[in-house]
Amino acid sequence: MTAGADHRVLSVPEGLAGERVDAALARMFGLSRTRAAELIASGHVLVDGSGVGKSDRVMPGATLDVTIPSLLDPLEVVPQIVEGIKIIHDDDSIVVIDKPVGVAVHPSPGWSGPTVVGHLVAAGFRIATSGASERQGIVQRLDVGTSGVMVITKSEHGYSLLKNAFRNRTVDKTYHALVQGHPDPFEGTVDAPIGRHPKHDYKFAVMADGRHSVTHYSTLEAHRFASLLEIHLETGRTHQIRVHMSALKHPCVGDITYGADPTLARRVGLERQWLHAVRLGFLHPDSGDYVEYESTYPDDLAHALEVVRDAH
């Protein structure tokens, strides 16, 4: 990702006569050899008006025409108002939001889309400065493809108390998931360690050497093709519910990554997993009172659920 560029034209000095282009470039512009080679390979370097290879030699007096794109930091927080983020609660210590699908919580390498942190900065919220710069104030995360309620801290005091509450598992995290088929038993606990998938690094899987992961579920509604579950997370691993439901052979409807039926996903009109963070309860960092916040199903999930309810 680049933004803007530095364009320079210089003559090769006598002292660099016969040097390789990448070495000459590195010395003349104060770049690393690797960066110089990248610029040459991407066509950003011309010698006397022509493209070159990194191991070509330069002659004294030759004209080096170099464009150096400035690199954007992938972790930089870009202030941007995000359509669809709703503020559920706001006070001096915390802000509770309803996160739509397609929004990451914070910047990360490989993600150039909208973020919760970027929205809050653009909307004028002061966020706690604790945590890595791109994750300041963040005490929990929801996947890009998961919607629902989440809390961000505004005060340093709030950050430390809630960070510990999540770490010590004293926060009540309730999700609803529409899963394929009917889990047997209707109510149960999945206690299975989760680690990175050995073949696909964008996925996770139940792995013997994974991290301790516990999911409690109960069936709210059972329909012909799918069941609506209420899920309480004891631990908070990446993709935990999706991995555990897939391991039970009841993946979230629409979750093609974890083995859901694409035909059913099309039938109910889903382009993501049916998974929503419906409730979040914790001790408020200022008052010490137990507070609970809720989020209703977004339109795509509500529609899919109606289709499943109406299927006979």
Textual characterization of the structure:
The chain is of the alpha+beta class and 312 residues long. It folds into 3 domains: 2-71, Structural Genomics Hypothetical 15.5 Kd Protein In mrcA-pckA Intergenic Region, Chain A (Roll); 74-162, Pseudouridine synthase (2-Layer Sandwich); 169-312, Pseudouridine synthase, CATH 3.30.2350.10. Helices cover 20% and strands 30% of the residues. It has 7 helices and 15 strands. The strands form 3 sheets. Strands 5, 6, 7, 8, 9, 12, 13, 14 and 15 form a 9-stranded mixed beta sheet that branches. Strands 1-4-2-3 form a 4-stranded antiparallel beta sheet. A hairpin with a 3-residue loop joins strand 5 and strand 6. Helix 1 crosses helix 2 (33-41). The radius of gyration is 26 Å and the shape is elongated. The model has no long low-confidence stretch (mean pLDDT 92). The active site is at residue 143. This is Pseudouridine synthase. Belongs to the pseudouridine synthase RluA family. Pfam families: PseudoU_synth_2, S4.
